[in-house]
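Bug: token stream looks shifted between consecutive jobs. Job 1:
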Amino acid sequence: MAFRWDDAKENYLRTRLQDDPQTPISHFQEYFGISYNAVRFKMKRMGIQISSVRKGEVIIKPEIEEEEADPEEVWKAYEEKNEQKIARHKASGRYVAEFPHEVIGVSFISDQHIAGGNVCDLKRMREDAELIAGTPGLYACLGGDSIDNHIKHRAAILAARTTPGDQYELFDHYLSLFSESILGVITGNHDDWTPQVAGTDVIASICKQHGIACSSDEARVAAVVGEVEYKLAWRHKYRFSSTMNQTHSPKQWYRFGPEPFDIGCVCHHHETAIEAYMQHGKQTWVCRPGSYQINSAYGRQGGYNDSLPACPTFLLFPGERRIIGFADVRDAVITLNAERMP
């Protein structure tokens, strides 16, 4: 039977303490068969103050009287704080972008793995960033693993040619090449190692300095082009991955995710893929970007082929819902420039 306080139990508690003020709480804990904290809380509710701590025959008094927090008040404070966290969580990574009545392009770029002295195509990375910055109406969505950031695995730390600090400086420079053309940045598993190990999100801090929206793992943008709204969604990893079918994962994200999208991108695999398919009676696009990290010791050991640093890019039209997809930004720019000619 559950324990219930009644007049008899309260009277015993009060009388025993009147007769022997030094009766330890453990006595009541054992007598009533309830927890230590339950006894303390009841004593406080009854107005019985605990001014000392008993240890054997020696009375030890605290140097500073500690005020016990009322569990009900603590619960209420955390309840309000958690409600705020839930609201921030639901709003995190959700943005609205409005564009003029003209064709625009959106390129998905991921897995840069910026590092010096590695098999990482920094030249092509820079050229793509400069191409996007120099092409009117072309924008980028960054999909995570911006730097190699080996701070979690000891063997990778020893093999690294540059430190995470050096790589963050290079990432800062990389963003400066086309910061005004970036719609948003998300973090990947390599980026997330810093918050996990050190408790600080350096990628988010750098993005903030450039005025770029940044969120962890996933982002969604409602891109309003003229009077047409396109729902863009990208995340670094998702379930249902398939080596035999790279677009399987983003398709299942559409199916099982919180809401549909017009273009969905899942990164992480370093293998580019792009596909248009019918979903609920309309053409939907899914893709995976390649990687500027051509390969690595981990990749070679696992038998992975070299990566192609391709950035799937989509043209979005005003006036009517129309999307044209390209496997790489360099191909898309040719058509985008032609469509935007006066």
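Job 2, same session, no restart:
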Amino acid sequence: MIGIVTNNPPLEAVIARELLMQLIENSNLDIKINQAVDILRLMNLTWPDNDTKKSVEEKVAEFYEDLPGKICYCLYQNKDLVGYAESIPVVIKIENSWLKVLGLGGLNVHPDWRGKGYGREIVEAVFIRIDNNEYPFCLFQTGIPYFYEKLGCKVIENKFINSSNQEDPFTNPFWDEYAMIYHATAKWPIGTVDLRREGF
């Protein structure tokens, strides 16, 4: 059985499957050190971390310091972490208007568990916050748009900049080829998007 467990009762839900999905808010307070290590190891399977100068302890510390307001979505098979994603509240600027959106990042499923619909389960748990009108959009980058299009997302064509990058503010802070939003039927503004931070 998949259960979504959160310290925010209105988000509680139960979905029939064979895994336990645990939704943990405020990761810097709720994620235990051993869980953070497991998350970093899982992410390393998809995005190898070649930084050998930093210790595991330093990388764990960065995990807690990174992205204030981050919510972690951890998918477990028994006690083994097999999937992960994070959502981040972000205030962006589009031309002369400010917009608070929910960012999605770090979606990752262990190679042994891919192709079973678990990535979809994690993403849909994030998108619930859009469906519940907590945010007007979920914004993210990806190299596999077709996966997200099946979940009701669409590619957007805006130019992205990062005004907080003092060396090169006009470089795209996203590194993947596509920027997308959920929901596909939402009216997304045109114009240059200032992410005002590094990509996620």
